[in-house]
């Protein structure tokens, strides 16, 4: 299964996101590389074994699209293994 979750921050726009990919990319590096090309710094990455859902349940159907799970103005908050963007959070396993 190629389910990936990335938390990223765009310093120029002061904007944070959590995005999931379930079928859009074969490898995690492809997904993170696309975000870096768009001006984001990667804060946290993982496949389905590297994170717990938190209050962002995994997508159940594979798709060739990336899914925006959370967004906010400002930097993401990283507290221990918990990642918070806006009002959404998950933990790294």
Characterize the structure shown.
Strand 6 (77-79) and strand 7 (82-85) form a beta hairpin. It is built from 1 helix and 8 strands. It has 93 residues and is mainly beta.
What's the gist of this structure?
The chain is mainly beta and 93 residues long.
Architecture blueprint of SSEs:
Layout: E1 3-10, E2 15-22, H1 28-37, E3 41-47, E4 51-52, E5 66-73, E6 77-79, E7 82-85, E8 88-92
Antiparallel strand pairs: 1-2, 1-3, 2-5, 4-8, 6-7, 7-8
Shape designation? globular
Number of strands: 8
The mean pLDDT is 94
The H-and-E topology, N to C, reads as EEHEEEEEE
From the alpha carbons, calculate the radius of gyration and give it in angstroms: 12 Å
First CA to last CA: what distance?
A: 17 Å
Strand % is: over 45%
List the strand order in the largest sheet.
Answer: 3-1-2-5
By helix and strand content, what is the structural category? mainly beta
Give a quick account of the main beta sheet: strands, pairing sense, barrel closure: 4 strands, antiparallel
Count up the helices: 1
Helix content: 10-25%
Indicate the low-confidence ranges by residue numbers.
none
Which keywords apply here?
4-stranded antiparallel β-sheet; single chain; 93 residues; mainly beta
């Amino acid at each position: 299964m190629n389910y990936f979750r990335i938390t990223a921050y765009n310093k120029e726009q002061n904007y944070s996101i959590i995005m999931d990919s379930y079928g859009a990319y074969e490898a995690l590096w492809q997904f993170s590389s696309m975000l870096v090309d768009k001006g984001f710094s990667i804060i946290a990455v993982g496949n389905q074994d590297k994170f717990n859902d938190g209050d962002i349940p995994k997508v159940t159907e594979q798709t060739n699209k990336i899914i925006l799970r959370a967004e906010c103005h400002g930097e993401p908050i990283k507290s221990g293994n918990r990642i918070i963007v806006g009002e959404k959070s998950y933990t790294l396993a």
